[in-house]
Amino acid sequence: MDTQELQQKALTAHSELQSVKAQINALQRSIQLGKVTKQEVEGIGGNGRVWQGVGKMFMSTKSTDYTNSLDSESSDAQEKIEALKKKEAYFETTLENLTKALANVSS
């Protein structure tokens, strides 16, 4: 491979890595928001009713059902984060290898 190809692959790997990191951060924020929301809803106590956003409208739902859906969303986000961490490791390794290859080509 020539230097230009290696540089192009390194740029692609770098941009993919940044994208994966941004996705992980967004999912972590989502999990944190879910935790805070769950604490607030549990503060209502009992089987109170809350308004849950659904698209462009709101539905009245039991607080227990809402906290269960928050837990489900949180576990889904956690699974996505685990998959993204694997991609992140792959892109970091790829970027490292490409950087070493570029250093070898230029020396």
Automatic annotation (TrEMBL):
Molecular function GO terms recorded: protein folding chaperone; unfolded protein binding
Give the InterPro entries listed for this entry: PFD_beta-like, Prefoldin
Where is the chain membrane-spanning? none
GO CC field: cytoplasm; prefoldin complex
Write out the entry's keywords from A to Z: Chaperone
For this chain, the family text in UniProt reads: Belongs to the prefoldin subunit beta family.
Q: What is this protein called?
A: Putative prefoldin subunit 1
